[in-house]
């Protein structure tokens, strides 16, 4: 019964270039499915999934954003007030790793310092086509205060682990102030519903 009293909502956003597999990661996590030819997300898609970690239940409110450049201007609407962000790149495509770094810099500049950030090198099942080494990505993640995992939505490798690791880190982030300079709420405490500054993304 105690665990039921510790339900926490956490807004999570996925960012990254088109074709990196963001939607596939979410689909694998939420529904345990993989679609070989996934249509590109238009704008953003919303999903929800709960995880139990220790004596807490985390309800992730997941925003899967579009990777196309023409939707870039919409991204702040989704990552603003996020408790966590997963920045995804394709280990077979160095350009997507470069793009991931730009997303991270943007989050660091405009996002909240309490946002938990994960760097996910997706398509880890395509090792023979690898163009970005895990060592390079790990070093970059450490330098920038992120945690790093290589994932494969196709084989489900480490997909759930990324979300579990974020869930484990949330209580630490929650111990810090829950609002940014604009008064945007990062998370909800217990069952007390609080609104974010953008009604579309609360």
Report on this model:
The protein contains 5 helices and 6 strands; from the N terminus they run βαββαβαβαβα. It is of the alpha/beta class and 202 residues long. It has one domain (3-174): P-loop containing nucleotide triphosphate hydrolases (Rossmann fold), CATH 3.40.50.300. It has a 6-stranded mixed beta sheet with strand order 2-3-1-4-5-6, sandwiched between helices. The relative contact order is 0.20. Mean pLDDT is 80; it is low at 1-5 and 177-202.
Features:
202 residues; alpha/beta; Rossmann fold; 6-stranded mixed beta sheet; 29% helix; disordered N terminus; disordered C terminus; Small_GTP-bd
Question: Could you give a short description of this structure?
Answer:
This protein has 202 residues and is of the alpha/beta class. It is built from five helices and six strands, in the order E-H-E-E-H-E-H-E-H-E-H. A six-stranded mixed β-sheet has the order 2-3-1-4-5-6, sandwiched between helices.
């Amino acid at each position: 019964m105690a665990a039921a009293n510790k339900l926490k909502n956490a807004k999570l956003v996925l960012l990254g270039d088109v074709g990196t597999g963001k939607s596939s990661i979410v689909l694998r996590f939420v529904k345990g499915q993989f679609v070989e030819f996934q249509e590109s997300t238009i704008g953003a898609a919303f999903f929800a999934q709960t995880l139990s970690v220790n004596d807490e239940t985390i309800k992730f409110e997941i925003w899967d954003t579009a990777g196309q450049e023409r939707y870039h201007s919409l991204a702040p609407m989704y990552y603003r007030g996020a408790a966590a962000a997963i920045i995804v790149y394709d280990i077979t495509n160095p350009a997507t790793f470069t793009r991931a770094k730009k997303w991270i810099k943007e989050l660091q500049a405009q996002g909240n310092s309490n946002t938990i950030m994960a760097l996910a090198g997706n398509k880890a099942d395509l090792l023979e086509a690898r163009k970005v080494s895990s060592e390079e990505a790990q070093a970059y993640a450490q330098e920038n205060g992120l945690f790093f995992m290589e994932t494969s939505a196709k084989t489900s490798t480490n997909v759930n682990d990324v979300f579990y690791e974020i869930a484990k880190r949330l209580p630490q982030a929650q111990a810090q102030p829950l609002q940014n300079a604009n008064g945007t709420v990062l998370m909800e405490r217990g069952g007390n519903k609080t609104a974010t500054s953008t009604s579309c993304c609360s």
